[in-house]
Amino acid sequence: MKIQNRDKTMAMARKIYVNLPVSDLDKAQAFFTALGFGFDPKFSNENAGCMRVDENIFVMLLVEHYFKTFINKTVCDARQCTEVLVCLSCESREEVDEMVAKAVAAGGTVPRDPQDFGFMYGHAFEDLDGHIWELVYMDIET
Hints:
The chain is an alpha+beta fold.
Protein backbone atom coordinates (compact mmCIF):
# COMPACT_ATOMS: atom_id res chain seq x y z
CA MET A 1 0.00 0.00 0.00
CA LYS A 2 1.33 3.41 -0.88
CA ILE A 3 0.06 6.71 0.43
CA GLN A 4 0.38 9.85 -1.64
CA ASN A 5 1.70 12.69 0.50
CA ARG A 6 1.74 15.80 -1.72
CA ASP A 7 4.68 15.11 -4.02
CA LYS A 8 6.20 12.29 -1.93
CA THR A 9 5.21 8.66 -1.88
CA MET A 10 5.63 6.85 1.43
CA ALA A 11 5.40 3.12 1.94
CA MET A 12 3.11 2.19 4.81
CA ALA A 13 3.12 -1.21 6.48
CA ARG A 14 -0.22 -2.97 6.11
CA LYS A 15 -1.87 -3.93 9.40
CA ILE A 16 -4.50 -6.56 10.07
CA TYR A 17 -7.32 -6.24 12.58
CA VAL A 18 -9.26 -9.45 13.20
CA ASN A 19 -12.63 -8.68 14.83
CA LEU A 20 -14.17 -11.37 17.03
CA PRO A 21 -17.41 -11.27 19.03
CA VAL A 22 -17.13 -12.20 22.71
CA SER A 23 -19.79 -12.81 25.32
CA ASP A 24 -17.79 -11.41 28.27
CA LEU A 25 -15.04 -8.91 27.47
CA ASP A 26 -13.40 -9.04 30.91
CA LYS A 27 -13.16 -12.84 30.82
CA ALA A 28 -11.90 -12.81 27.22
CA GLN A 29 -9.19 -10.26 28.07
CA ALA A 30 -8.15 -12.26 31.16
CA PHE A 31 -7.96 -15.41 29.01
CA PHE A 32 -5.69 -13.85 26.39
CA THR A 33 -3.61 -12.03 29.01
CA ALA A 34 -2.92 -15.48 30.54
CA LEU A 35 -1.55 -16.49 27.12
CA GLY A 36 0.87 -13.56 27.20
CA PHE A 37 -0.95 -11.05 24.97
CA GLY A 38 -1.30 -7.40 25.91
CA PHE A 39 -4.07 -4.87 25.26
CA ASP A 40 -3.82 -1.31 24.00
CA PRO A 41 -5.88 0.89 26.34
CA LYS A 42 -6.09 3.65 23.69
CA PHE A 43 -8.28 1.41 21.55
CA SER A 44 -10.11 -0.43 24.32
CA ASN A 45 -13.25 0.42 26.29
CA GLU A 46 -16.31 -1.32 27.77
CA ASN A 47 -17.25 -2.62 24.28
CA ALA A 48 -13.87 -3.51 22.80
CA GLY A 49 -10.44 -4.78 23.75
CA CYS A 50 -7.60 -4.22 21.27
CA MET A 51 -5.24 -7.19 21.66
CA ARG A 52 -1.78 -6.76 20.17
CA VAL A 53 -0.50 -9.97 18.60
CA ASP A 54 2.49 -8.46 16.81
CA GLU A 55 3.66 -5.12 15.44
CA ASN A 56 1.04 -5.10 12.68
CA ILE A 57 -1.45 -7.70 13.89
CA PHE A 58 -4.32 -6.91 16.24
CA VAL A 59 -7.43 -8.71 17.41
CA MET A 60 -10.42 -6.61 18.35
CA LEU A 61 -12.45 -8.47 20.95
CA LEU A 62 -15.90 -6.90 20.64
CA VAL A 63 -18.85 -7.56 22.94
CA GLU A 64 -21.55 -9.17 20.85
CA HIS A 65 -24.05 -6.28 20.87
CA TYR A 66 -21.29 -3.93 19.67
CA PHE A 67 -20.01 -6.45 17.08
CA LYS A 68 -23.54 -6.55 15.64
CA THR A 69 -23.37 -2.82 14.82
CA PHE A 70 -20.82 -3.65 12.08
CA ILE A 71 -22.81 -6.38 10.32
CA ASN A 72 -26.23 -7.06 8.81
CA LYS A 73 -26.08 -10.80 9.45
CA THR A 74 -26.54 -13.05 12.45
CA VAL A 75 -23.50 -13.59 14.67
CA CYS A 76 -22.41 -17.22 14.58
CA ASP A 77 -22.13 -19.11 17.83
CA ALA A 78 -18.54 -20.31 17.44
CA ARG A 79 -19.27 -23.15 19.89
CA GLN A 80 -21.73 -24.59 17.32
CA CYS A 81 -20.22 -23.65 13.93
CA THR A 82 -16.94 -22.35 12.59
CA GLU A 83 -16.62 -19.40 10.26
CA VAL A 84 -12.90 -18.71 10.57
CA LEU A 85 -9.69 -20.30 11.82
CA VAL A 86 -7.17 -17.84 13.21
CA CYS A 87 -3.66 -19.18 12.66
CA LEU A 88 -0.57 -17.82 14.41
CA SER A 89 3.00 -18.83 13.68
CA CYS A 90 5.24 -19.76 16.59
CA GLU A 91 9.01 -19.80 17.01
CA SER A 92 9.21 -23.49 18.03
CA ARG A 93 7.25 -26.67 18.64
CA GLU A 94 7.66 -26.00 22.34
CA GLU A 95 6.02 -22.58 21.99
CA VAL A 96 3.06 -24.21 20.22
CA ASP A 97 2.59 -26.70 23.07
CA GLU A 98 3.16 -24.06 25.77
CA MET A 99 0.50 -21.76 24.35
CA VAL A 100 -2.02 -24.61 24.10
CA ALA A 101 -1.24 -25.55 27.73
CA LYS A 102 -1.74 -21.91 28.81
CA ALA A 103 -5.03 -21.76 26.93
CA VAL A 104 -6.30 -24.90 28.66
CA ALA A 105 -5.16 -23.61 32.06
CA ALA A 106 -7.06 -20.36 31.39
CA GLY A 107 -10.31 -22.21 30.56
CA GLY A 108 -9.93 -22.97 26.86
CA THR A 109 -10.36 -26.37 25.24
CA VAL A 110 -8.40 -28.46 22.72
CA PRO A 111 -10.38 -29.33 19.58
CA ARG A 112 -7.96 -31.92 18.20
CA ASP A 113 -4.65 -33.69 18.73
CA PRO A 114 -1.39 -32.05 17.58
CA GLN A 115 -0.40 -32.61 13.96
CA ASP A 116 3.20 -33.37 13.02
CA PHE A 117 4.13 -33.21 9.33
CA GLY A 118 7.89 -33.22 9.92
CA PHE A 119 8.61 -29.76 8.50
CA MET A 120 5.46 -28.37 10.12
CA TYR A 121 3.99 -28.91 13.57
CA GLY A 122 0.61 -27.60 14.63
CA HIS A 123 -1.89 -27.69 17.44
CA ALA A 124 -4.95 -25.64 18.33
CA PHE A 125 -7.13 -24.34 21.12
CA GLU A 126 -10.62 -22.91 21.40
CA ASP A 127 -10.99 -19.70 23.38
CA LEU A 128 -13.82 -19.07 25.85
CA ASP A 129 -16.21 -18.12 23.02
CA GLY A 130 -15.38 -21.15 20.85
CA HIS A 131 -13.10 -19.40 18.32
CA ILE A 132 -10.43 -21.80 17.06
CA TRP A 133 -6.82 -20.59 17.20
CA GLU A 134 -4.40 -22.67 15.14
CA LEU A 135 -0.74 -22.52 16.22
CA VAL A 136 1.93 -23.65 13.81
CA TYR A 137 5.70 -23.98 13.76
CA MET A 138 7.33 -24.42 10.36
CA ASP A 139 10.94 -25.50 9.98
CA ILE A 140 11.85 -23.70 6.76
CA GLU A 141 15.27 -25.34 6.71
CA THR A 142 13.77 -28.82 6.15
